[in-house]
Amino acid sequence: MASKSPLQQWVADVWATTLKISEPELDDDFYALGGTSLAAVRIVFVVRDRLGVELPLRALLDSADLAAFCAEIDRRAEPGAALLERLA
């Protein structure tokens, strides 16, 4: 089990809360955990609202797992964005 970065831990917590599951691992698939389109909308809204990252719904739906979704968030964050400060 790989340790999570602060962003990955925060996203795992959001997934766990939204999907009402125990904490997912980095290689866990959103759909395999019971993810639905409504849950995806909620998760993307929370990411946009809390982190200020403009993220299309497709970014979650196309991600293979939690790690890939976090990488997409990181990729779409504005250069120099203080994501970690927004997680506090």
TrEMBL record:
The keyword Phosphoprotein applies. Residues 2-77 form the Carrier domain. It comes from the Bacteria. SMART domains: PKS_PP. Keywords: Phosphopantetheine, Phosphoprotein. InterPro entries: ACP-like_sf (IPR036736), PKS_PP-bd (IPR020806), PP-bd_ACP (IPR009081). This is Phosphopantetheine-binding protein.
